[in-house]
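Pasting as-is:
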Amino acid sequence: MANPFVHVELTTSDPDKAKTFYGSLFDWKLEDVEMGPGFTYTMINVGEGTGGGLMQTPAPGVPTAWLPYVLVGDVTASTAKAKSLGATVMKDVTEVPNAGSFSIILDPTGAAIGLWQPKAK
């Protein structure tokens, strides 16, 4: 399948409460990764299927929500194409050190989706 969903991310105002809930509800392996001073990202390994992550909401007023990410070959070009098709760019192309780059867009109907390009090996 072209452009599969590759990651699902939960941003929440209470990461500890979310980890307790999802760790008890599902058989997911949750692993905290220090991404920088004061920023912990929790990797979600689901075994089979698409995994994800969990983190503190990035700014005041950002709602708790799940965000799917889709694999793209060129995140910069895909972000520009989405914008030309009527999307709003919420987070422009951003590098995740040693992993890849992403952007977050709102489609013309208002639904959020992330675009992900892994780092070339």
